[in-house]
Amino acid sequence: MTDDPLSVPYRERERSVTMEPMGADDDLHEELFTLNIGPHHPATHGVLRLLTTLEGEVVRDIKPIIGYVHTGIEKSCEDQQYWKVITFVERMDYLAYYFNASAYCMSVEKLLEIEVPDRAQYLRVIHMELNRIASHLFALATGALDLGAITMLWWGCRDRDLVLDLFEMSSGQRMHPRYIQIGGVFEDIPPGWVEKTRKFLKLMPTRLDQYEDLLDRNEIWLERLKGTGVISQERALELGVTGPLLRATGHPWDLRKAMPYSCYEQFDFDVPVGHHGDNYDRFKVRMDEMRQSIRIVEQALDGLPEGDHITTDRKVALPPRHELATSMEALIHHFKLVTEGFRVPPGEAYTAIESPRGELGCYVLADGSAKPARVHMRDPSFVNLMSLPDMARDSLIADFIACVAMLDPILGGVDR
Amino acid sequence: MRPRGRKPRGGNSKLPDATGLELIAQRIRTSLGDEAVTGTTYYREQATVDVAPEAVHDALEYLSRADEEPWTRLSSLHGVDYLPEEPRLGVHYQLLSMERCDRLNLRTRVGADDAHLPTVIDLFPTADFQEREVYDMFGVVFDGHPDLRRILLPEDYTGYPQRRDFPMGGEPVLFTFNEHKYPRWYD
């Protein structure tokens, strides 16, 4: 390799297939074969390209090639006021939008040193945990589809829709709701939302039992998941793997427990772990996490405190609508916030939360203006993807598809 | 449900505090020499050690292996451009101790013209993609990285878009009618 890696001509580096005729004395049984899986392939969960080296049907090496949905969100954020950035970061990991917005808002709140009211913290937790259920359901649905269980796709999407209905009711949007704001949440929950959520929470465990009846006794499902894609705990830690993938290896690392944020320290929940670190454990950990999320939401609804849903600091949060008609000050604040935004004192903050896929960290650099100088997301999918070659090496190509399914990378988060 | 205690702010624990940070900096100085640490910052309950660019690898090796309170995990590695300041580019190493549930940020600064840093992939294999991303976005070359190529942008891309002086704006979409206007595609 030369000093400047960019000096190598385009496409030269990845050339793997040659058109040269095969020699008569070549041993055809020991030939390595390069297969390009993706970027457009349904089993790669987005536009993920995997340069796979095969020997017969055995995977010898995988190189993930990413960047196909890189849209420069982090760069775009630098040109937006702080409160407008939320819209951008929500579109990174597009199945865990509440988490992206939370991580970003918590970083900015840290820089601004504002307190978030209790009720807002609870509402954040409720929405994040519902989002975790939705995200795990979709992971399970598409993962099962990769393994040929198409019923699970319909069932998973059916029940994820119930969560999206709740999001729509509380924030007006099914996806990317921009519900979590700096200083709290956008709006208090509407009347009837708690009852609707409780109905869902009562229904969901029966649905989870249904999935387990469908999958957990299914010979094909078990054969394809048990003992495949094993990664040791030590290797997972070295590679920075977090979330359900790490917990499946038996390491009980969960930021909600280890470094509680929002108000997670007030809830009673367990951290499910696996034993072997194989695909089956990943599936089980996700199933159990959904049950724990239900527990958390139930407790949060029971203990939902009264009070403000967003900070009363008018320099940061918009004044309530009714004040605009009567208060001149409110009108000025509203005008200033909408036109210029608020300024954040210079400094930098890194906040990490537990997203459905692992540690989601958000780094914000403020330079004293109304726009952030840098927003960086440490996306768990991006880091977890590094473990794919280790999982799938020396296994069958069918098992490697199961690995991608259970790894659950979200390419919007990987490429940002 | 547990009784409500005081909320920890912002999601991260509070140690090391300012004193703990100074002790860590002092231990790095003792083991690597005084010029290795260029400063410490304690801001909003976050501890940051500034390290000279040539000492990054040694400092991380010391902190992750030899220190009495080791920081065994690298949770995030990212770049940042402090444009008006010099040296301009910064690289952050967010260290994590899973035993003590604690974070430490190690920061180094390099100039934009000749940005070179030693790779830490031998200490933390998780740095692989993340160093490639910093190289891709900021042009910091990590010496010793086995496969340092662009990761998110196309391989024939020129420039480092996350630098603050890189212009904001859309990339033209290539169609047959306008591809002659962008000769780079043929090169």
Comma- or semicolon-separated keywords:
heterodimer, A: 416 residues, alpha+beta, Cytochrome-c3 Hydrogenase, chain B, 3-stranded antiparallel sheet, 8 strands, 45% helix, 12% strand, B: 187 residues, alpha/beta, Beta Polymerase, domain 2, 5-stranded mixed sheet, two-stranded parallel sheet, 20% helix, elongated, disordered N terminus
Describe the structure.
The complex is a heterodimer of chains A (416) and B (187). Chain A is built from 16 helices and eight strands. The radius of gyration of chain A is 23 Å and the shape is globular. Chain A has helices spanning 73-77, 82-89, 97-112, 118-146, 150-171, 193-215, 219-225, 233-238, 244-247, 255-258, 279-302, 328-339, 380-384, 388-392, 397-407, 411-415, and strands at residues 33-37, 49-55, 58-65, 180-181, 184-185, 347-355, 358-366, 372-378. Chain A has one domain: Cytochrome-c3 Hydrogenase, chain B (Orthogonal Bundle), CATH 1.10.645.10. By secondary structure, chain A is of the alpha+beta class. Chain B has 187 residues and is of the alpha/beta class. Chain B has a single domain, classed as NADH:ubiquinone oxidoreductase Nqo5 subunit (Beta Polymerase, domain 2, 2-Layer Sandwich), CATH 3.30.460.80. Chain B has three helices and seven strands, in the order αββαββββαβ. Chains A and B meet through α1, α3, β6, β7 and β8 of A and β3 and α3 of B.
Q: So, CATH architecture of chain B?
A: 2-Layer Sandwich
**CATH domain class name of chain A:** Mainly Alpha
Helical region count of chain A? Answer: 16
The unreliable regions of chain B are 1-13
CATH superfamily of chain B: NADH:ubiquinone oxidoreductase Nqo5 subunit
Number of domains of chain B: 1
